[in-house]
Amino acid sequence: MEGSRAGWSQITEWHTRTRPVIAQHYSDQLDAFDSIIKIQWTVFRRVISLSSGPSPDYSRVDNEERSANNAKVANAKNRLLAHIDAMIELDSTIEPDKPTLHESDSLFDEINTILAACPLPQQFKSVITQDLDDSQKAYANKAYKACVVMLGAAIEGFMLGTLQRTDVLTHLASSGNSAPVPIHRLGTGDPALADKIGNDLTFEDYKVCIHDLVQGVETLGVDNIQSFRNAIHPWKTIQEPLTAR
User: Fold this and answer.
1) N or C: which terminus of the chain has fewer CB atoms within 10 Å of its end residue's CB?
2) Taking the model in full, what pTM does it have?
């Protein structure tokens, strides 16, 4: 934006483009933002000559008037920029140790609602609830790696709890050669199948089983959770810092 009377149209056009953003996110600052461009322009008196001689020389008056108005434009420009800077600074310092948006809280609430409706064994629901609570606390305190670790634990609990459902175990025990590969490896007829699923299978094994048993599971983001959880590995953090952030 040019800081002279000639550039005033640029400033007013910028103000017009920026105003909706201020109205949406900083509505309490809108009046002050608008007032900055309400300028009373300087107009100096001209001397009217009644003589029949040459026309009066107004150049000095015009230059002083132009200079005064250019100073007002420059001042308005600086005030607009300072006002924007102040709003951004204020926004960044409000409750600095807490998230300024509540989007994460609504997402965790949604996850807990889904968990409550899932037909998982109660002991798994209790463990997953605690993991989600720890994850939410970690996120609120900007401990994002810890948040990812606990989200990984929660999703693992969802998958293992699903495989430990009585109806699912009955289905797996009778599935024979059609069982998911990790289950087939354990032996579908093994009376200790439930214990072996909990003790011997990995996150990746649970994921394979869930992919085989539940249609559309690829839309649930299990792969993304696993990728983010893997990203907290120290060497991964060094190699791909943007992924781990």
Assistant:
1) C
2) 0.53
